[in-house]
Amino acid sequence: MAMSCKENKQDAQMNTPEEVQKAKEQTPDVADASFVDGMTGKAWNNYLQVRTALVESDAGTVQTVAGNLAESFGEQRAELKSLAQQMADSDDIEKQRELFSQFGQQAENLFKNGLSEGTIYKQYCPMAFNNTGGYWFSDVDEIRNPYFGDRMLKCGSVTETIEK
Fold first, then answer.
1. Using one digit for the tens of pLDDT, what is the confidence trace for 59-94?
2. Is residue 87 a contact partner of residue 69, using CB atoms and an 8 Å limit?
3. Got the DSSP string for 70-89?
4. pLDDT at 45 over 90
5. Average pLDDT value over all residues in the chain
6. What's the CA dihedral at 79, 83, 84, 85 to 10 degrees?
7. CA pair distance 107, 112, nearest whole angstrom
8. Which of 25, 44, 69, 122 is least surrounded by CB atoms within 10 angstroms?
9. C-alpha distances in angstroms, 71 versus 80, 105, 106, 153?
10. Domain boundaries, the chain
11. How far, in Å, are 101, 114, 120, 152 from residue 14 at the CA level?
């Protein structure tokens, strides 16, 4: 199934600096969700900070907050810890985006099963990763695409709403 965010790809890439700034201001810094344990809640908050840094195409901030994300996990979550640490170790924004996508796939059950109150939105961009698509999680239903940042800020859709 082929999808695009806009009929004209050039239109999809036009975001004025004012639109980008407004989006940054409207993106909450704190999740409106509660989790069954502190580790999952801390991981969720760090995940959201990584997502925001990717939306802003800020590789340096991704490194910092991904390091915090890695510290959220003990050895029982070694794969998640490793993916987060790889994000922290890379200064290549595109590599960080790939690792973020892999992290989201691995963390999906943790976030879904750990949610005790609130709402999480699973979102999807069909154009990410050379049109193979990519998912991410958000605490708001408004699309802020971590895979394209300000190039296609609003490309994507909510594919699932997880509520408790």
1. 999 999 999 999 999 888 999 999 999 999 999 999
2. yes
3. HHT--GGGHHHHHHHHHHHH
4. yes
5. 86
6. 100
7. 9
8. 25
9. 10, 19, 16, 29
10. 9-20+32-163
11. 24, 37, 28, 7
Backbone dihedral region of 9: left (phi > 0), alpha (psi from -120 to 50 degrees) or beta? alpha
Handedness of CA 12, 16, 18, 20 (dihedral sign): positive
d(CA 140, CA 50): 15
DSSP 13: T
Q: How far apart are CA 111 and CA 120, in angstroms?
A: 8
Q: Find out whether 146 and 154 touch, Cβ atoms under 8 Å.
A: no
Helices and strands, number each (H, E), in the chain: 7, 4
Q: What six digits make up the tokens of 68? A: 């915090």
Look-up of token digits 């750990």 = 114
Instruction: Mention every residue, 6+ apart, whose C-beta is less than 8 A from residue 92.
Output: 59
Cα separation, 138 vs 116, in Å, equals 16
Residues paired with residue 138 on neighbouring β-strands, in sequence order = 121
Q: Is the pTM of this model over 0.90?
A: no
DSSP 3-state of 126? coil
CB atoms within 10 A of CB 157: 14
